[in-house]
Amino acid sequence: MIRSITQAKHDDEIFRLLSGSVRIFIAGCGTCATMTRTGGEAEVSAMKERLSANGKLVTGTVTVPVACDNLSVHIVNECGDAVAQADALLVMSCAFGVQTLARHTRKMVVPALDTLFIGKETAVGEYNEICHQCGTCVIGETGGICPVTSCHKGLLNGPCGGTNQGKCEIDSQKDCAWTLIYNRLTELGRLDLMRTLQKPRNFLGEPTPGKYRVMM
Fold first, then answer.
1. Pick from 179, 121, 115: nearest CA to 152
2. Same-domain pairing of 105 and 145
3. For the chain: N or C, fewer Cβ within 10 A?
4. Structure-derived torsion over alpha carbons of residues 105, 107, 113, 118, reported in degrees to the nearest 10
5. Domain for residue 96, yes or no?
6. Order of strands across the sheet that contains 113-123
7. What is the three-class DSSP state of 176?
8. Radius of gyration of the chain from its Cα atoms, rounded to whole angstroms
C-alpha cells in the first residue's frame, strides 16, 4: 500500500510556528499519518498534552479519515465553535493535507510534520521510498527497478566501484540496486539494455511548480 511518509517536526519548530497563537485546534489524519504514527489519534492526543503544558489552549481535536481528501474540510467545519475559537490550526498530516485545509479556512494553518517521500511499508514500521516522482522515468530500461530510489547514490549508470558481493558500500545490509538490475535483465534476456549509457538526470523533468493537463 502506497503512502505519504512523514516525520514529526521538532517541538521547538512547532512552537515557533505557533508563536502569537494561543488557542489551537489540532487535526490529524486517519490514513498515512496514522500508519507512520505521526498524526493518528494517539499522536494528536499527545500533541494536545504538550501544547497544554506549554501554555496553549487546545480548543478541540479531530482525526479525519483522509486529510488530503476534500471531505476533510467538511469534517473540520463540523467542529464548529472549536475551530472558530482557534487562532490557528495545527495539522498533523502530509503537506497535501495541510494545503487542502489551508485552502478552505481563514485561519493560520501550521504543519506539525515534514513530508519525506512516497513510500511503501516493507516491514513492520519500516518504509522505503519507491518513487521520487522525478518526471524522467527510466525503469523501462532497468527491468522495472528504479535506480534513483533503489541506489543510495541515485546512479543512472552503474554499478559503482564500491559494490561488494551484491551489497551496497553505504549500507552493507542493502542489496546493490545495480546488481538487482543486472540480475533482472539477465533473467529477461535483455542485458543489452544495461549497455545503454543513460544521459545525466534532468532534475527539471517537470516544470516547477508541477502541472499536468489531460489533452481532451
1. 179
2. no
3. C
4. 20
5. yes
6. 2-8, 113-123, 126-131
7. coil
8. 22
> CA separation (Å) from 50 to 57, 98, 149, 194?
11, 20, 36, 53
215 lies in a domain? Answer: no
Q: What is the pLDDT of residue 76?
A: 87
What would the pLDDT profile of 171-189 be if each residue is shown by its tens digit? 999 999 999 999 999 998 9
Give exposure, 159-197, as e/b (b: 16+ Cβ within 10 Å). bbeebeeeebeeeeeeebbbbbbbebbeeeeeeeebeee
Per-residue CA distances from 66 to 33, 74, 181, 192 (Å): 9, 12, 36, 45
**Which residue range(s) make up the domain with 57?**
2-116
Q: Locate cell 493537463: which residue?
A: 213
Residue 148 forms part of a structural domain: yes
Q: Which amino acid is residue 213, in one-letter code?
A: R
Q: Are residue 107 and residue 69 in the same domain, yes or no?
A: yes
| Residue in the block written with cell 499522536 | 43
**In whole numbers, what is the pLDDT of the chain averaged over residues?**
88
Q: Give the confidence band of 209 by pLDDT, cuts at 50, 70, 90.
A: low
pLDDT at 118: 83
